[in-house]
Amino acid sequence: MTRPRILIGLGAGVAAAGFAATLPYWLPQRVTALRGTIFTLVNGEEGIPVLRRPAGAADFLRIYGDPAANGRSQGAGLSDLFWYWLAPGPQVHQEHLEPGPRYDQAARTTRTILASRTKAQWTELVARCTARVLDQDLAKDNSTIVNVPVRLRDLMMPVWAEVYYELVFREPCPRYARDLITGNADDVVSALKCTRLRHMGRRDRLTRYLRGRIDSGTVPFALPGLMTPAEQAFYLQGAFFNTAVVQMSEAMAHLLLAIAQHPGVQDRLRAGALGDPEYLSRVIDEAMRAWPLFGIAHRITTAGIDVDPPIAAGSVLLFDYLGFHTGGGGDAAVFDPGRWERAGALNFIPFGVSANRPCPARGVAPVGMQAAAVEVLRRFVLSSSAGHARSLGNRAPVLLTPVGAPRPGAGRLALMRLRDRWEDVTRSLTQLVLGTVMVADARRLALCRTYFAEHPERRPAAKATIS
């Protein structure tokens, strides 16, 4: 009797182990779907997915660019969630300001600051900051660099903290200011990814620093006059030290991870001695097409839109960037820089549409990405077997190998892939719990709804034109 029981126990153990081994292949996807369902239950279901309308992609740009699709925050339950994640000061965040004089001033100030450097000066600034971070922050011992995976988002965030600090303040970024900026930006993006609860203390420290600079008169640009000094600090924090730092760090992580996982692309870049900017530009475009920085953008209509079927005033429109970029069928979801040499017009709006508040950095972001990528590739060969999703929850693990050193073997990459798959399991469960907590908290606080209830004069005017 003892032997059959032992065999049964062993069989059960083997079955349990086999079941556990399958978890990374199905559990994260199921948990992510469950998280989406819970978000909808807590936050309510709203919005019209534009790509799911009968005309699909054919009407996407037409609707996105319509003058009536200009409401940004007021009237959408989703806004409470985004304001929660982007606090403090989401009411003056340029991306969330309703059209009107305050938005016009914020947009004008942002354009002025971004245009204060020529293309050559911008390239030099980004290259210099990238080189400094790579040479000073990474370990000098090459074997240590090879043996320890680097998270690309974490590596690139100090680069863009220094870049945007120097752009805004026209002086080199001191280490303590860089730490404030990276602490703030990391907290924002980690909350957005639901991998950590938001930590307002980290964000408030940067706000106090920026307010001190404003009060001391050491900001070399005229800030929006319709904003109070406190709001001016929130504006700088939101536009440059939240959005700009986070988005550029994410963009570089996607780009470099794609290069790491496509040896042919990396070899071609190196064969050209990094002197082929046209090919690097195509690689950047393809990375931004395959992994757009924006997931779903929402706009609220201030008037009806005459399409078939028509869209009523007050509708919340949902614009799916990834779906639009990769909805062409065939190999549209595959990373292939060569498609830019073969294809005609592609579905490609990495910075939004020009008729409806496009990203103000659309003219400088690709140039900066080129400069930063060149500095990285001059120093390192990149290798990675980690998963690559648009959400970039894993922060893009890679192995950096100094140029000329032996590259990691297949076994090392297999271990990286295994570790990344199991991290997906724990991360998805963490996101489920923390995301549910934050969505419920955002709904309770109702930051956007409360603000517009207290400031009805700042609601978008009906039938206004896009600023």
- The percent range for helix content is 55-70%
Number of helices: 17
The biggest beta sheet is recorded as:
3 strands, mixed
Could you tell me the strand content as a percent range? 5-15%
Order of helices and strands: HEHHHHHEHHHHHHEEHHHEEHH
Number of strands: 6
What would you say this structure looks like, in words?
The protein has a 3-stranded mixed beta sheet. Strands 2-6-5 form a 3-stranded antiparallel beta sheet, with helices on both faces. With 467 residues, the chain is mainly α. α5 (119-137) packs parallel to α15, α7 (152-169) crosses α10 (229-260) and α10 (229-260) packs across α12. The mean pLDDT is 89. The longest helix has 42 residues, at 2-43. It is built from 17 helices and 6 strands.
Topology:
Layout: H1 2-43, E1 48-49, H2 57-64, H3 77-86, H4 101-114, H5 119-137, H6 142-147, E2 150-151, H7 152-169, H8 175-192, H9 200-215, H10 229-260, H11 263-271, H12 277-290, E3 296-300, E4 316-320, H13 321-326, H14 339-342, H15 365-379, E5 380-383, E6 397-402, H16 410-445, H17 447-454
Parallel strand pairs: 1-4
Antiparallel strand pairs: 2-6, 3-4, 5-6
Helix pairs in contact: 1-16, 3-16, 5-7, 5-15, 7-8, 7-10, 8-9, 8-10, 9-10, 10-12, 10-15
